[in-house]
Structure formats: C-alpha cells, structure tokens
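Protein modeling request. Please complete all fields; requests missing the sequence field cannot be processed.
Requester role: graduate student
Desired output: 3D structure, token encoding
Chains: 1
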Amino acid sequence: MQPLYVAFDVALAALSVRSVVVLRSAAPWTSAGWAATIGYCVAAAVEFSSEPEQRIAAYVAYAFLLALTVAFVIAGVRDERQAEPWWWPTHPGPTRAEKRAKT
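Delivered output (103 residues):
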C-alpha cells in the first residue's frame, strides 16, 4: 500500500469534483476532462491501495488518463473556460480570447 499516493489521489479527486461543480455545462470538454480525472483517481487509488497491485485497475487508470488528456486538449483548442482559482475553484474564469480583448 502506498498511502501518500492514495492521499494525493483523494485530494486530486476532491479538486476535480469541485471543478466539475463550478464549470457544469459552461465548458463541456473541460468538465469531461475533470470527470475523467475523477475516474483516473479512483482507479489509481484502487490500484495502489491493495497488495498486489491490481492489473485491471491499472488498465482502467490508463484509459481514464488517455480520456482526460484528449478532453483537456480539445478544451484548450476550443478555448473553453477554466475553473479558477486552480487550488480551490470558485468560479469559471475568462477564456484566452477574453483575456486578450482586455489588454
């Protein structure tokens, strides 16, 4: 068992849940990326919390990792809003286009 890794996964999952709640449908691909992050955290926590490491949980974690990467790349290309501030989101932030328009 790797308790520090499991604790990190739990903290990242809590941040992910908060980000999904803040963004809702305002940024669908970003929300999908955070939802996949939750799935990754759960699968990785299962993988590293038991002895021996769970092979199926590892495959599921990698699938979620691929899904979250794709979702966040699409969200970046589409210039979707991100949850801000990053350490504990409270509101959707401006897009890059909105930031450029202010300057």
